[in-house]
Amino acid sequence: MSRRKFLAVTGAVGLGSMLAPTGLLAATSLPPKVARKPFGKTGVEVSALGLGCMFDIIDNQIILQRAFDHGVNYWDTAAVYEKGGSERGIGMFLEKNPSARNELFITTKGKISELPQTLDESLARLKTDHVDLFLLHGVSSIDEVDRLKIRAFAERAKQEGKIRFIGFSTHSNMAECLMAAPRLGWIDAILFTYNYRIMHEPDLVLAMEACDRAGIALIAMKTQGQRQREDTSEQQALLTPFAARGFTPGQAKLKVAMEHPHISTAIVQMPNLRLCRENIAAALDQTRLADYDYALLERYAAATAGTYCAGCRRHCEQALGGTVPVQDVMRQLMYHRNYGGEVDARALFADLPARVREQLPLLDYQGAERACPRHLPVGQLMREASGLLA
């Protein structure tokens, strides 16, 4: 569907679907479908836009239906999201719509330390006998995955028909994890942070190319590059030219990931109908970003780099002697502030050892701040996290 035809069908003007009345995207008998892309070497195709399900799925079934109607078949959840409520919400949808299961590509995640019990519990909540992809959750070193026990679990789960494919998610040391994955020989897919802020980092570019050559499917998350602070008016002004292009800034950021040839799908949280419509509109719109658009995002990224944690972990944590999980706390703070994930953020924070939680607001973070490539105010953010998440 061309951009002109799509906008005519949806009735969207200027800012795309952000201004479209509720329900217009589903007004036709055959809603337009999001394009699909190959999922690595698996022979499967998935929607270029993926539904991130880290929100109250149980009370927002209409969002699942809207995404399904538009061909968004990649659904991403995890055992820890909403304390299992995300998976239960998907299970409710599948109970009401059993024929939808064959059209969906469902991914869930579990902690390595809790295998295989966590998989069986997820299947029970999801009301399905298998998931299409099971991800080992929150890997920061390939050594966590490169174990005979883990490979044996993957092979057994595949043989039993509980999973189709296996992989891992990573929020930190991503380039190193991606670069090392091909040598294992049994990783089907990797979910990792990818956005306009880090898209030009040489190590990450090389690692993505290595995975692509090995046929490992790459799944992008954190595509919006959310920061720990609100933009100033001057920073916001850097993104205003997107309105003339018919994009919201969020749609432009999402397109960066969806347009990358090595990325199979870009996962985005859609906790309300406005964001659901806006993200689907971005995926349906075939207009590609121009060099000018990428330049705008680069300028914005440079101007706002001082409060974005890129997940490199090794710099700040080594400066603190490896005893403080700075990157984990940064991620929890981001969930709380930017994704409406207060419940999950507090649950993850509570999982940290009590000794770590108690010392967070008391430590001297000057060394970590000097080591941070982005010059984040690490101490200030750790103290804020202690107050918000406790």
Give the SSE string.
Answer: HEEEHEHEHEHEHEHEHHHEHHHHHHHH
- What is the approximate shape? globular
CATH overall fold name of the largest domain: TIM Barrel
Nearest-integer average pLDDT: 89
For this structure, what is the CATH homologous superfamily of the largest domain? NADP-dependent oxidoreductase domain
Radius of gyration: 20 Å
CATH architecture of the largest domain: Alpha-Beta Barrel
Oligomer category:
single chain
* CATH top-level class of the largest domain: Alpha Beta
Q: How many beta-strand runs? A: 10
Structural overview:
There is one protein chain. The chain has two domains: 33-225 and 232-301, Alpha-Beta Barrel (TIM Barrel), CATH 3.20.20.100; 307-389, no CATH class. It is 43% helix and 13% strand. The protein contains 18 helices and ten strands. The strands form two sheets. An eight-stranded parallel beta barrel has the order 3-4-5-6-7-8-9-10, surrounded by six helices. Helix 6 runs parallel beside helix 7 and helix 14 (326-338) packs across helix 18 (378-389). The radius of gyration is 20 Å and the shape is globular. The model is unreliable at 1-27 (pLDDT under 50).
Give a quick set of tags describing it.
single chain, 390 residues, alpha/beta, TIM Barrel, 8-stranded parallel barrel, two-stranded antiparallel ribbon, 18 helices, 10 strands, 43% helix, 13% strand, globular, disordered N terminus
List the helices and strands and how they pair.
Layout: H1 3-10, E1 36-38, E2 45-47, E3 49-52, H2 61-69, E4 74-76, H3 85-96, E5 105-110, H4 117-126, E6 131-136, H5 148-159, E7 163-170, H6 174-180, E8 189-193, H7 202-214, E9 217-221, H8 233-237, H9 242-245, H10 249-258, E10 263-269, H11 273-284, H12 291-303, H13 314-319, H14 326-338, H15 342-351, H16 354-359, H17 366-371, H18 378-389
